[in-house]
Structure formats: structure tokens, C-alpha cells
Write a structure and sequence with these properties.
With 388 residues, this protein is an all-alpha fold. Helix content is 88%, strand content 0%. α2 packs antiparallel against α4 and α8 runs antiparallel to α10. The two termini are 138 Å apart. Keywords: Coiled coil.
Length: 388
């Protein structure tokens, strides 16, 4: 039982998980110990009975020794009284028989119980032999159990060493797992922070995308508005081109009619002089723009094919000469209003000529090569006031 306790202590201290083999060994050990305990109890009971029988035999032996001592004392008395040999021998035999009888009667009771006592002694001897055999068997079984227990103890020690090594490995693995767990927790924190940062970036990108989408919608609206304006401008331009074509046709017809009338109606010299004087007179402020636009020298100069700079210089010189003939026109000569009027007229003329050039290029693409010369002549002879 003490060794069983020793063998059971490591499992209790280490709290290691028990396998099925260890459970079976424990059950076998408990059953063997129980059987050994029962056998030991039987042996103890037999030894107690043997000890009681030995005590009874010792008592009887003591009684026999007392009887023998009494016999020796009686023999000594006989030797002193009758020293003859035969009588002594006979007396000794008689005395020995009596002593035996007295001893048997004194020690074992009457002669009838002698056989029973012998039988009991024989049975006691048999029981002692059997008990000795049982004790020998018990010793052998105890030795065998001790050997098996020692072997099992060695196996348990080896298993204990293996379990200790496994426990050490498990502790190392636990430490490694704890370190890995800490690393994984740190990585999880880093990943969570990165995820939050990415979510912020995604939200910022969404906001930027919304702003960009709104801007794109505004740009699309503006593009639609610009396209609408462009369409309206193209429509207006087409309308103006059509009106210009119609005007050019009417102008061509009017020039033909004017040339026909000029052939038949030459006019008087006085009317021409009056027109010349009217052209040299100072112009009031309200009608200065119309007079400058209807001025005949500027018209004739442009119709003759001069450049715009020459036309502008001639117009300014004409205004200066007209103002120098009239004293009331000194204010107009000193002021810059006349130059502004001339510059406005020139810019209007340039813009109209640019429009006419574009339209005529389109017409030239449509018309054959024979009509280019006529169109150039019409463009050279067209005055400013006709455009207005």
C-alpha cells in the first residue's frame, strides 16, 4: 500500500490526464492489493490460532517437566531405601508406568481423551503445515506482486519521465503559443488600424467621387448649355447667311437698275455741286455717325480697292479739312469724337468684311470657277452703308 501511494503521488501532483491503460493498471493493482489483504488477514488469523495452540502445548510441556522432576525426586528416594538392581528395575518400570499414566492423566486428562488429543495434535500439525504452505504461497505471491509492483513502478517512473518531458514540451509550446498569440493580437490591432485608415480613405474617396460627380454633372449641364448656345448661334449664323445672300441678290439687282438709270439720267452739274458742298459741311453730333458712314469719298476710296489704313487716314483728313472751313466746327476738330467715329466705322467694316469673306468662301466652294471673278468685283464695289 505504501508503494501504491508512492506510485499514485506523481499523477496527483501533476494532474496529468489518465489514459485507459493507466486506468486498467490501477484496477488490476487495486484488485491484487485487495486479494493480498484478504490473504494477509487469513494468515494473521491462522497465526493467531497457531500461537494459541503453541501456548497450550507449552503449558502442557511445563506440566510434563514438573512431573519428570517429581519422578526424579522419587527415584532418588528409592535409591536410598532399596539399592538392589532387580527391585530397582521393577520399581522403575512400575514407577515409569505410573508416572506416564499420571503424566498423561495430569497433562492430557484421562486415558480416553488421549486419542482425541493425539488427533487434535495431528490436526494441529496438519493445520500448521497447511498454514505454513499458505504462508509460503503468500510469501511467493507477495514476492511476485512485489516484483510486478517494482516492474510497474519502473514502468511508471519511465512513464513519469516521459510525461515530465511531455509536460516540458507542452510548457514550451504554451510559451510559444502565448508569444504567437501576443504577436497575432498585435497584428490584429495593426490590421484593425489599417482597416480603419482604409475606411477613412474610402470615405474620403467617396466624398471626392461625389464632388467630382457633381462637378461632372455641372460640366455636363454647362456642355449642354454650350451646345444649345452653339446650335442657336449656328442657326442664327445660317439665318444671317441666308439674309446676306438674299441681300446680295437684291443689291445686285439694285445695282443693275441703278446702272440702267445712270445711263438714262445723268443729272445736272448744280446738283452735283450741292452734294459736294453738303459733304464738306460740318455734321451735327446726332448725325455724325450716319454722315461719316454715308461719306462718298470713303466709299469711293474703298470701292477703288484701297487699304483700310488709307481709308481711315483719308477719312480723318476729310473731317479735319471740313472742320477747318467752318468756324463753328472748331469744337469737333479739337475733340477726339471724330476719330472714335471713324475707328468704329472701320471696325464695323472689318467685321462685316470678315463675315463676307467666310460666306463667300463657302459660296466659292459651291459655285464653279467662272463665278469667282464676279464675286470679287461685287465685294470690291460694295460700300459700308449698304451693309448697315
Amino acid at each position: 500500500s505504501h508503494k501504491h501511494k508512492k506510485n499514485g503521488n506523481p499523477n496527483e501532483t501533476k494532474n496529468a490526464p489518465e489514459s485507459e491503460v493507466e486506468k486498467e493498471m490501477r484496477l488490476e493493482r487495486s484488485s491484487s492489493v485487495h486479494s493480498d489483504m484478504t490473504k494477509a488477514e487469513e494468515c494473521i488469523n491462522v497465526t493467531k490460532e497457531v500461537e494459541s495452540l503453541q501456548q497450550n502445548v507449552k503449558r502442557k510441556i511445563q506440566m510434563l517437566n514438573e512431573a519428570i522432576s517429581n519422578l526424579h525426586s522419587a527415584l532418588e528416594e528409592l535409591d536410598e531405601t532399596q539399592p538392589s538392581g532387580f527391585i530397582y528395575f521393577f520399581i522403575c518400570i512400575r514407577i515409569s508406568v505410573r508416572i506416564k499414566h499420571t503424566l498423561y492423566t495430569y497433562a492430557y486428562g484421562p486415558s480416553e481423551q488421549l486419542d482425541e488429543i493425539k488427533q487434535e495434535v495431528d490436526e494441529a500439525k496438519k493445520l500448521v503445515k497447511e498454514k505454513d504452505g499458505m504462508l509460503a504461497k503468500l510469501k511467493r505471491s507477495a514476492d511476485e506482486t512485489m516484483r510486478t509492483l517494482e516492474e510497474k513502478e519502473k514502468e511508471l517512473e519511465e512513464r513519469e519521465k516521459g510525461l515530465n518531458e511531455e509536460v516540458d514540451d507542452i510548457t514550451k509550446q504554451n510559451k510559444d503559443l502565448k508569444d504567437r498569440r501576443e504577436l497575432l493580437l498585435r497584428e490584429c490591432d495593426d490590421v484593425r488600424k489599417q482597416k480603419e485608415h482604409w475606411q477613412q480613405l474610402v470615405e474620403e474617396q467617396k466624398q471626392r467621387f461625389e464632388i467630382f460627380r457633381k462637378q461632372q454633372e455641372e460640366l455636363d449641364k454647362r456642355d449642354q448649355e454650350v451646345l444649345g448656345l452653339h446650335r442657336s448661334i449656328t442657326e442664327e449664323r445660317l439665318k444671317l447667311q441666308e439674309e446676306k445672300k438674299r441681300f446680295l441678290k437684291e443689291r445686285h439687282k439694285w445695282e443693275k437698275e441703278k446702272n440702267k438709270q445712270a445711263k438714262y439720267d445723268s443729272g445736272s452739274i448744280q446738283d452735283l455741286a450741292a452734294q459736294q458742298k453738303a459733304m464738306t459741311k460740318p455734321v451735327p453730333s446726332g448725325k455724325l455717325r450716319l454722315k461719316s458712314n454715308n461719306s462718298q469719298p470713303y466709299e469711293n476710296l474703298y470701292m477703288m480697292g484701297a487699304s483700310l489704313k488709307d481709308a481711315r487716314a483719308m477719312a480723318a483728313n476729310a473731317v479735319f479739312t471740313a472742320n477747318s472751313h467752318d468756324d463753328n466746327a472748331s469744337e469737333y476738330a479739337e475733340s477726339e469724337y471724330a476719330d472714335t467715329i471713324v475707328s468704329d466705322a472701320v471696325t464695323d467694316l472689318e467685321s462685316l468684311n470678315s463675315i463676307s469673306d467666310d460666306d463667300e468662301e463657302e459660296e466659292e466652294d459651291d459655285k464653279p470657277d467662272g463665278s469667282d471673278h464676279k464675286n470679287k468685283l461685287q465685294r470690291m464695289q460694295l460700300p459700308v452703308n449698304d451693309y448697315e
